[in-house]
Amino acid sequence: MGRRAWLAAALVAAAGAWPCLADEGDGSRTEAKAAYREGYQRGYDEGFDRGYRKGLEEGRASAIAEPPHATGPITVSSANYGTSSRRCDATRFVARRANGKRTYSFEVSNDMCGDPSHGDRKALEVAYVCGSIAKTASANEHRTIQLDCTP
Predict the structure, then answer these.
(1) Distances from the Cα of 23 to the Cα of 9, 12, 14, 59, angstroms
(2) Are 89 and 142 within one domain?
(3) What is the model's pLDDT at position 3?
(4) 29 lies in a domain?
(5) 145 three-state secondary structure
(6) Which of left, alpha, beta for 120 (phi over 0: left; psi -120 to 50: alpha)?
(7) Do residues 72 and 130 touch, judged by C-beta distance below 8 A?
(8) What angle do CA 28, 31, 35 make, to 5 degrees?
(9) Is 0.85 surpassed by the pTM of this model?
(10) Backbone phi, then psi, for 90, in 5-degree steps?
(11) H or E segment to which residue 56 belongs
(12) Is 71 in contact with 131 (CB distance < 8 Å)?
């Protein structure tokens, strides 16, 4: 059952429960009830159609904007290396090598800022900007991390 048909059925059921529209054997009440239902349904349909047409027009009028492309050189905002409890700041290390380039990749290792958590699995998390687009990249120790600002 469609939404409109369901609403119409609900209105008919509700109208039967209203004392002011109850049929007491009087033909005028039956006619009034039928006229009320018909008028209500007509108003609903016209309002629904009007809203539907307006939505279609607005949808056609607004062009869907393409998401911005990541343009501009890499600018490193922050770089943290380690575990969730023990970290070191690797921002200078990464920024010196990646800033100003369109793409940059390197192996994550303890050479960046020492070993902040000996014996634990560590990761590098880098936040950087490509023009006006903020991006992030991460990689585990002994893996390659890729910073990319190409469109």
Answers:
(1) 18, 13, 13, 46
(2) yes
(3) 62
(4) yes
(5) strand
(6) beta
(7) yes
(8) 135
(9) no
(10) -105, 15
(11) helix 27-61
(12) yes
**Does residue 69 form part of some domain?**
no
Cα 8 from Cα 145, distance rounded (Å): 60
Would you state the pLDDT for residue 25?
57
Q: Which of 40, 61, 82 is the last residue of a domain?
A: 61
Q: Alpha-carbon distance 121 to 16, whole Å?
A: 71
What stretches in the chain show pLDDT beneath 50?
23
Overall domain count for the chain: 2
Rounded CA separation 37/102 (Å): 67
Does some domain include residue 67?
Answer: no
141 and 82 housed in the same domain: yes
Terminus-to-terminus CA distance in the chain, angstroms? 48
Gyration radius from the chain CA atoms: 33
Q: How far apart are CA 138 and CA 145, in angstroms?
A: 6
Q: Which two tokens stand for residue 134?
A: 């903020």
Identify the domain containing residue 14 by its residue range: 3-61
Any idea how long the chain is? 151
